[in-house]
Amino acid sequence: MSQARIIDGKAFAQRLRDRLSLQVAALGEAHGLQPGLAVVLVGENPASQVYVRNKGQATVASGMRSFEHRLPDTTDQRTLIDLVERLNRDPAVNGILVQLPLPPQIDPAAVIAAIDPDKDVDGFHVENAGRLALGLPGLVPCTPLGCMMLLNDVLGDDLSGRRALVLGRSSIVGKPMASLLLAASCTVTTAHSRTRDLADECRRADILVAAVGRPEMVRGDWIKPGATVIDVGINRVPSLDPLAASEGRTRLVGDVAFAEAARVAGAITPVPGGVGPMTIACLLLNTLTATCRQNG
Ligand code: GUN
């Protein structure tokens, strides 16, 4: 039985972060610049707290400045937008990230619209989304950018003509991922919860990117033999051991049934250790890119 190449996103992300650290140091020596990333967290969502802490630690480890802003759950939209506008004007801040989700009294679209597009290191502002859709340079959302880097590492720089299926149509992953694959001259299909004959659609794909947030939804027999599978899902499910599960212990799984898929695919990302570490590395990359563009 053949076994897919396991794509080591963790090691790839570490190499990228090492290169970025060298570039940050060189930018300081040559131009006296130190990139700064501001991360804003509203409320106490436990997963968001972990993400924000990890982002801050990675920022400092790369030699950049980290500015963390924690606001209470009861914060109103005006107060948050006032903070974003202050960060827009602050020359020490080159990148701004407002952690999602936001509490229900705040409209995320209004907050994202308030971020200076040149500091929008998430790539969520309509200007950056529009630029990506039109194939113009801009800031690209971190997770799809990381997925493309892994695909280029496995398959080489030329993806032209390959059939790519993106499962999921979110603004954070699915839509920008489809735009990047199209810009790379793939034949792109976007599938979602209303797609008919989903397994057949998947079976046609040379490149399958799963980003639906449904644990192990993509089965081994949905995969074309030799395909490259990128699993963006991070789903927490009960532990396999019934005793551990009864104690509330959990494990992380992707949107793809990994063991089954690895018997069919040519290459596949694991969960954890695949796409996840790339997202933070690409956030640092975007912060460095934004700093360079802001300084000509
Ligand atoms: N919440 C989950 N993923 C993300 C992300 O990539 N950016 C932001 N701002 N919030 C998130």
From TrEMBL:
Q: What does the sequence similarity comment in the record state about its family?
A: Belongs to the tetrahydrofolate dehydrogenase/cyclohydrolase family.
Which PROSITE patterns does the protein's record reference?
A: THF_DHG_CYH_2
The cross-references to NCBIfam families, in alphabetical order and at most eight, read: PRK14186.1, PRK14188.1
Q: Which InterPro entries does the entry mention? A: Aminoacid_DH-like_N_sf, NAD(P)-bd_dom_sf, THF_DH/CycHdrlase, THF_DH/CycHdrlase_cat_dom, THF_DH/CycHdrlase_CS, THF_DH/CycHdrlase_NAD-bd_dom
What name does the UniProt record give this protein? Bifunctional protein FolD
Q: Where is the Tetrahydrofolate dehydrogenase/cyclohydrolase NAD(P)-binding domain?
A: 141-294
Range of residues in the leader sequence = none
Alphabetical list of CDD domains matching this protein = NAD_bind_m-THF_DH_Cyclohyd (cd01080)
On assembly, the entry states:
Homodimer.
Tell me the keywords, alphabetical order: Amino-acid biosynthesis, Histidine biosynthesis, Hydrolase, Methionine biosynthesis, Multifunctional enzyme, NADP, One-carbon metabolism, Oxidoreductase, Purine biosynthesis
Q: Which organism is it from?
A: Skermanella cutis
Pfam families xrefs: THF_DHG_CYH (PF00763), THF_DHG_CYH_C (PF02882)
- The record's EC number reads 1.5.1.5, 3.5.4.9
- Establish whether keyword Cell inner membrane is in the entry: no
